[in-house]
Write a structure and sequence with these properties.
Blueprint: E1 6-9, H1 13-22, E2 28-32, E3 39-43, E4 49-53, E5 55-58, E6 69-72, H2 79-87, E7 96-98, H3 105-112, E8 117-122, E9 125-128, E10 133-138, E11 142-145, H4 152-164, E12 169-171, H5 175-196, H6 208-226, H7 235-249, H8 256-262, H9 269-272, H10 274-282, H11 288-305
Parallel strand pairs: 1-2, 1-6, 2-5, 3-10, 6-7, 7-8, 11-12
Antiparallel strand pairs: 3-4, 8-11, 9-10
InterPro entries: 6-PGluconate_DH-like_C_sf, 6PGD_dom2, ApbA, Ketopantoate_reductase, KPA_reductase, KPR_N, NAD(P)-bd_dom_sf
Enzyme class: oxidoreductase
Protein name: 2-dehydropantoate 2-reductase
């Protein structure tokens, strides 16, 4: 039997981290819109440097070989277009793994894809330092599962492969809840660090701490109405504990939304904040802080789309 082959579609920080880690275990092809240097450098959380060759292809010139599994690691707002570009090249039955933040594209792609779909919720941290270098900023944990609770054996097998590659992973039957929990943390942290251009740990101090607390309160009320509980339960206090634990653990990190703002890229605000606003609306809850941040990030996105003024 030929070895399992994995396509990683989306060569950003998370895509390259997964590709470089998995390459020690299985054949990997990294696929993007443009070719990157074949020799890629991974800087580990311990400060070690690993250089490895990767097979690289463009999404408009896909390899002829059929992959055993496809990992979609694009940003949430680019995931459906990337999947559409892949779909014609994939026979029915090839598993798809979605690594997007938020909770927007996952239900749609689960319905659209002609094969098993797993969702990943991860706290692994990474950032790009150039076309040939990515830093694994901090160890985390990845949870894998299908939204409908199926494909448990597939999720367990992939979790073993990722764990062996240095990305600890666990198959779960409640990935829906895990995605909402991560969304809650991102919603309480990312908009503020993006707005004020600060690292996560600075949220512990004034004037930012009260801002975080207001966002936590709105997130907690919304998710309680949705029937989503924080780890260990506890209502508002449970959500507060979860968010501040993440702030502490990622104190030196620059959140992905901040990285996108600083690079002039579109952020994942629609995938992270819009689902919360929709849920709040369903339950007739007032969430003015969440609404303001979504409006502000939409304003930034609109400005990115505007053509430059004539000289």
């Amino acid at each position: 039997m030929p070895p399992a082959t994995h396509w990683i579609v989306g060569p950003g920080a998370m895509g390259r981290l997964i590709a470089l880690r998995l390459a020690d275990q299985v054949p990997v092809t990294l696929i993007g819109r443009r070719r990157l240097p074949a020799r890629q450098t991974l800087v580990t959380p311990e400060g070690d440097t690993r250089i490895a060759p990767l097979a690289l292809e463009r999404i408009d010139a896909l390899p002829a070989d059929i992959p055993t599994m496809v990992h979609l690691t694009t940003k949430a707002h680019g995931s459906e277009a990337a999947h559409a570009a892949l779909a014609a090249a994939l026979p029915d039955g090839v598993p798809l793994v979605l690594w997007q933040n938020g909770f927007a594209c996952q239900p749609r792609l689960t319905e659209q894809h002609r094969g098993p779909v797993l969702c990943a919720s991860t706290t692994e941290g990474a950032h790009v330092q150039g076309d040939d270098r990515v830093t694994h900023a901090g160890h985390g944990q990845t949870f894998l599962g299908a939204l409908d609770g199926r494909h448990a054996r597939l999720a367990s097998s992939l979790a073993q492969t990722l764990s062996a590659a240095g990305l600890p992973a666990e198959a779960v039957d409640n990935i829906h809840v895990r995605l909402w929990r991560k969304l809650a943390v991102n919603a309480a942290i990312n908009p503020l660090v993006a707005q004020f251009a600060i690292r996560n740990g600075q949220l512990r101090d004034r004037p930012f701490r009260p801002m975080v607390e207001r966002l936590i309160a709105e997130v907690a009320a919304t998710l309680t109405a949705e029937g989503i509980t924080p780890p260990g339960g506890g209502g508002l206090e449970g959500w507060r504990k979860l968010v501040w634990q993440v702030v502490e653990a990622t104190a030196t990190n620059r959140a992905s939304m901040l990285q996108d703002v600083q690079a002039g890229r579109l952020t994942e605000h629609e995938a992270i904040l819009a689902p919360l606003l929709a849920a709040a609306s369903r339950h007739r809850l007032s969430v003015p802080c969440l609404a303001w941040h979504l409006h502000d990030l939409r304003r930034r996105a609109a400005a990115l789309a505007e053509p430059p003024a004539a000289c």
